[in-house]
Each structure stands twice: as C-alpha cells, then as structure tokens.
Amino acid sequence: MSSIERRLYPRILVKWPAVVETLHGFIQGVTKDISVDGVFIQCSEEPELREVFQILLKPTVKKSISVTARHVWSGTFKTGKTDVFGMGVQFTSISTKDRQFISTLVEQESSK
Known about the structure:
mainly beta; six-stranded antiparallel barrel
C-alpha cells in the first residue's frame, strides 16, 4: 500500500513546549514537527477538545505563538515503555508575523 503525502507545506522537526486549551483546562505538550499550516504535538494524555481550540507554542523563552487550530488526526504511540498521545492539528488562525517566523525557520532548516 503506498502512502500519498497530502501536506501542502514542508515540515521541520522542532521540540517546543506547547499548551493546549481543552474543555477542562490546559494540557502541557511538546511539539515534534511544524509547518506554516500545522503542528504535531505529543501530550501525556488525550485532551477533550472543542471543534477549534487554542494552542500556545513556546519556541523560545521570550517568544510565544498563539494559534487557533482544528484536530486533523491523532493516536497513541509507544515511546520506550510509555504510551503518549499525539495529534496533528491544522492552524485555522495564526498571525502573519508568527506565520512568517515559522516560514523562515522552515526555509533555514530545509536549506541545510
């Protein structure tokens, strides 16, 4: 069975703290990869989400990126002896400045 790449934009590997707003509060997570269109986040538990929800990404101590996103896919993955929840989300709202920040990072990393 062949898999077809459906992503429109290239992704890079990043490990940024992320805070996902859920129906019952906030869950801490960590990003694994990102593009200008979306991000993959791992969490210790599966969050209960609204149709669209807020995520705060923290690429540096001084910089935060606030996005509105929608859930695209998810699953539970084994990392060593531990199961973690992972989800791919698509940005539905991101500032032009933050989108450009991510785009520049992706271009720099892709050109290496």
